Amino acid sequence: MKKKIQMSRMWQYFVEATAEIIEEEGINKITIRKVADKAGYNSATIYNYFSEISHLIFFAAMKFLKPYTDEVSTYMDKGNNPLEKYLLAWECFCKHSFQHPQIFHAVFIMDLGEQPENLLERYYQIYPEELITIPEELKPILFERNMSKRGRSYLELALKEGYIKEENIDAINEITILIWQGMFTNILNNRRQYTPEEAMQMTMNYITEIVRNQAVFNFG
Fold first, then answer.
1. What is the CB-side half-sphere exposure of residue 145 using CA atoms within 13 A?
2. Cβ-based neighbours of 117, under 8 Å, separated by 6 or more
3. Do residues 151 and 176 make contact, with C-beta atoms less than 8 angstroms apart?
4. 117: number of CA atoms within 13 Å, CB side?
5. Cα(107)–Cα(117) distance, rounded to whole angstroms?
6. What is the number of other CB atoms lying within 10 angstroms of the CB of residue 155?
7. Could you say which architecture CATH assigns to the domain 2-53?
8. What pLDDT is attached to residue 106?
9. Whole-Å CA distances, 80 to 75, 123, 155
10. Which residues contact 207 (CB under 8 A, 6 or more apart)?
11. pLDDT for the residue numbered 114
């Protein structure tokens, strides 16, 4: 038990050192050597806790995701049915991802090697206090890194309540993700000079149109 606590503390030292570098220099400036120097250990020690640097970056980036995870339930509470909640969830996700593209890339898109689905669960095991304000029904979604699976959960609720047809779920889910990915890539790579607010509004206009066109009846 004592050894497990010590390992957890060491893990946190390295994650928090990485988060400090993100704040001071930016996510693209992270190196194992910088993290080791800031944490006061040698580089080899880090690999006892993290199999690759992408995992370290992922966990540190998660610490900057809290404003999004705190706000998404407030957004969704405004919805009166699953499709409205689905759109509001996307609006909140667009708002934060376009404001902090490097962070969201590290969490949701970056190649994390094998078994990336275990990393979110590992993070919340170490930082359980970050789940205190999250409603129970949202926790399974927050533990899911896969964008397709995250979106599908609320679409399945809409199906159960008769708002959409089963044959339309995959189309709605995949098209909305592709719309976001297209705009996100533009923002991440500075291909278009949109403000985060402009990017969010344009993306939500397209996503809303897709969802409304596929709905069985008008809503909202």
1. 22
2. 144, 145, 146
3. yes
4. 8
5. 11
6. 23
7. Orthogonal Bundle (1.10)
8. 94
9. 11, 32, 14
10. 87, 90, 176, 179, 180
11. 64
CB 180 within 8 A of CB 150: no
Q: Which amino acid is at 123?
A: Y
Instruction: Find out whether 182 and 94 touch, Cβ atoms under 8 Å.
Output: no
Q: What is the mean pLDDT of each run of 10 residues along the chain (220 residues)?
A: 77 94 94 93 90 91 91 91 93 96 93 75 82 74 79 87 92 95 92 91 96 80
pLDDT of amino acid 135: 75
User: How confident is the model at residue 116, as a pLDDT?
Assistant: 67
Q: 64-214 — its CATH code?
A: 1.10.357
Domains 2-53 and 64-214 share a fold: no
Sign, CA dihedral 131-78-148-16, equals: negative
CA 219 to chain centre: 27
DSSP string, 88-152: HHHHHHHHHHHHSHHHHHHHHTS---S-THHHHHHHHHH-GGGGTTS-GGGHHHHT---HHHHHH
Instruction: Give domain limits for the chain.
Output: 2-53, 64-214
Q: Among candidates 130, 126, 115, which has minimal Cα distance to 52?
A: 115
Distance CA 123, CA 62 (A): 8
Contact (Cβ atoms closer than 8 angstroms) between residue 150 and residue 144: yes
- What is the reported pTM? 0.89
- Residue 36 half-sphere exposure toward CB, CA atoms < 13 A: 14
